[in-house]
Q: What sequence folds into this?
């Protein structure tokens, strides 16, 4: 008997992951942002990363229309930012401490890393798309990661 959607979701919640916020712009230059835990490095040469985004989100449409996105690897004290970008809130960027990146997208300050990426491939994957990005610029900072495990935020402690 095939695994159910709930069984699969429950099984995947046992995999601890870091938490990122991905920022892009749509064709009308409006900012979009989404919390993404399905993030991974793909290749060192060239430097590639991937993100998986559900097709029904506004951020998916924006990513499909653009050439660039930023990945902001959240630190342990940025749970509120993760929750804000995981919501349907339309004012996600209001009051957010950001720095403009070289590719024309804002980067969230206080993160462990900010990666500016150029989309190199979009792969259809069921109800999600896999966006592969070549990392053009990487900014690295110290701190502890925000971790997501069993449908809750965790720290390293």
A:
């Amino acid at each position: 008997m095939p695994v159910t959607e709930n069984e699969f979701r429950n099984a995947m919640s046992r995999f601890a992951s870091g938490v990122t916020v991905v920022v892009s712009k749509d064709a009308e230059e409006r900012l979009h942002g989404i919390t993404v835990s399905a993030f991974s490095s793909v290749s060192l040469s060239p430097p590639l990363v991937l993100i998986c985004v559900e097709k029904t989100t506004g951020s998916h449409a924006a990513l499909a229309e653009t050439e660039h996105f930023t990945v902001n690897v959240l630190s342990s004290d940025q749970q509120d930012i993760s929750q804000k970008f995981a919501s349907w809130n339309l004012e996600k960027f209001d009051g957010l401490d950001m720095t403009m990146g070289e590719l024309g997208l804002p980067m969230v300050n206080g993160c462990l890393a900010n990666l500016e990426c150029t989309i190199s491939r979009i792969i259809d994957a069921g109800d999600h798309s896999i966006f592969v990005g070549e990392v053009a610029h990487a900014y690295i900072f110290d701190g502890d990661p925000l971790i997501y495990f069993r449908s809750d935020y965790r720290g390293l402690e």
Q: What stands out?
A: The chain has a mean pLDDT of 94. The chain has one domain: 5-150. The chain is about 15% helix and 45% strand. The domain at 5-150 is CATH 2.30.110.10 (Pnp Oxidase; Chain A).
